[in-house]
From TrEMBL:
Residues 7-120 form the Response regulatory domain. Its main location: cytoplasm. The modification 4-aspartylphosphate is found at D56. Pfam families: Response_reg, Trans_reg_C. Gene3D superfamilies: 3.40.50.2300, 6.10.250.690, Winged helix-like DNA-binding domain superfamily/Winged helix DNA-binding domain. This is DNA-binding response regulator. Keywords: DNA-binding, Phosphoprotein, Transcription, Transcription regulation, Two-component regulatory system. GO terms for biological process: regulation of DNA-templated transcription.
Length: 232
């Protein structure tokens, strides 16, 4: 039985660049669809249901930030931001609103292909442990990609969910920020450890932690999912 091609949506208003990206991705057995502005990107996304989105920030009609936000309202599909902006603020902002990775222009096209494959490997259903973790006031269900805090379902980005699952799977174990970056974002991630801090802060705001567990900062080291002994 022939394997179905993974579909990549490329969003950029530079026609020549999109054609170059296609020329590198298609020989790697990817199907590529293209949109040249933000409004068209959302239309194509709904019509084609891609497996991954390569999304430029500076696009007309609706910029990449807004497109990313709109996609995240309906899907956890991996998003790699393409940007000429290399400032740390832009990288952190992209990750905060739901992007999974970023690559700064100009980039090596072979690196782009490698990043696409790495992200897809991390997010493929075959690579996710279909398990459920239950603590007081918290249910992490990767079978359904659902998180419940108390009686409420909590909306988390895929990265937030993976980070929470990893910490909760290893109660009372301390992880450095670098360890968490490598485990959740991949060894090839080139961003700052500040990325971990941002995601931990967002998890704390979204979850109603009882006295029996907490996501604790271990000063000078990193973080741990601290659980009282009778709840481990």
């Amino acid at each position: 039985m022939k394997n179905e091609k993974m579909k990549i949506l490329v969003v950029d208003d530079d026609y020549n660049l999109t054609q170059l990206i296609k020329s590198y991705l298609m020989p790697e057995n990817f199907e590529v669809v293209v949109a040249n502005d933000g409004i068209k990107a959302l239309e194509v996304f709904k019509l084609t249901a891609p497996n991954l989105v390569l999304l430029d920030i500076m696009i007309p009609k609706l910029d990449g930030w807004e497109v990313c936000k709109e996609i995240r309202k309906v899907s956890n599909v991996p998003i790699i931001m393409l940007t000429a902006k290399g400032e740390q603020f832009d990288k952190i902002l992209g990750l905060e609103i739901g992007a999974d990775d970023y690559i700064v222009k100009p980039f090596d096209f072979r690196e782009l292909v490698a990043r696409v494959r790495a992200v897809l490997r991390r997010y493929s259903p075959q690579g996710i442990k279909t398990k459920q973790i239950i603590y007081p006031n918290l249910v992490i269900d990767l079978n359904e990609f659902q998180i419940r805090s108390g009686d409420e379902e909590v909306e988390l980005t895929r990265k937030e969910m993976e980070l929470l699952y990893y910490l909760a799977s290893n109660p009372n174990q301390v992880f450095t920020r670098q360890q968490l970056l490598e485990e959740i974002w991949g060894f090839d991630f080139t961003g700052s450890t500040r990325t971990v801090d941002v995601h931990i802060e967002r998890l704390r705001k979204k979850l109603k932690a009882p006295d029996s567990w907490q996501i604790k900062t271990v000063w000078g080291v990193g973080y741990k999912f601290e659980v009282k002994s009778n709840n481990v």
